[in-house]
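Researcher: I'm preparing a figure for a lab meeting and need a structural model of a single chain. I don't have an experimental structure, so a prediction will have to do for now. The sequence is pasted below. Please return the structure as tokens so I can convert it later.
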Amino acid sequence: MADAKAFLKRKNIEFSARRYGIDALGAMAQGLFCSLLIGTIIRTAGSQLGVQTLTDIGTYAMAVSGPAMAVAIGYALQAPPMVLFSLAAVGWAANAEGGAGGPLAVLLIAIFAAECGKAVSKETKVDILVTPAVTILVGVALAKWIAPPIGIAAGKFGVLIDSATKLQPFWMGIAVSVLVGVALTLPISSAAICSVLQLTGLAGGAAVAGCCAQMVGFAVMSFRENKWGGLVSQGLGTSMLQMPNIVRNPRVWIAPIVTSAITGPIATCLFHLEMNGAPINSGMGTCGLCGPIGVWTGWLAPGEEALAKGAAAIAPSGFDWLGLALVAVVLPAALCPLINALCRKLGWVKDGDLTLS
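Model: Understood. Here is the structure written out token by token.
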């Protein structure tokens, strides 16, 4: 047992929820952002502007989402170069075989393949052959074996959430908005979660509402402490910056959570706001305006996941644009400071509690 522990430590293999559930998951979201998401945005821009070069560039970027996710995961796991580069093939296979559940398949398979590759790295005199061979053979074999059922399960679960939201738009609007919004602020990846669950449609709209409530809400209600720098870093960056303050005083989180519980059902019941772009957009909020951009791209050209659920392109009306503006920006900016002011009067939040370090 001691020898095994020493070996794992020497190989930097750490079985922990933080490394796999936070580090790897967060890195996967970044890989997905730098391929599928940005590619979708560029391709949509090219399509709308009639610039074929932009459309082609976006298509190429979207095509390498599997390798991008796998390499990002390997980087988070501190894989050596030979393992890291070999994960490109693993990511491609897992994403292709996983279908609708490609991101989840990539996450699980890339982690396992990376750790196997790390275990054999530099253990033989023919490392240049052994390490990539082990990484690729293990990863691709797993992809052929477990990725298809993972894809089926993830797809069905995503459809279940979407169907439940259509049947119970009020209660599911609250649940999805609050849970995904909370995930956005926690040190985990709401974007990766939404991508894994293929969260689109009405449920995707509720997720966008919850994420925007957290980001815009924290940005505006902490303006007196953090000024313009805080407004931009939280409103267009991430509300995760507030986690140290939440740990010190969890009550500072009340206003954004209550706001998301309000805007979620407004999105689903009043405006019937659907996010039919790439599923990752559902968990991005106003980070780079990706949430609203996902709604817009979904209006014009629904993604494959949304099309599989029956989505269709629409010409957005003024009411659609009003709903998006209110849910994504106006209501969070108005409601969150008001709710936080009440928390201040009750003595739950005081000056300095929202100051970014």
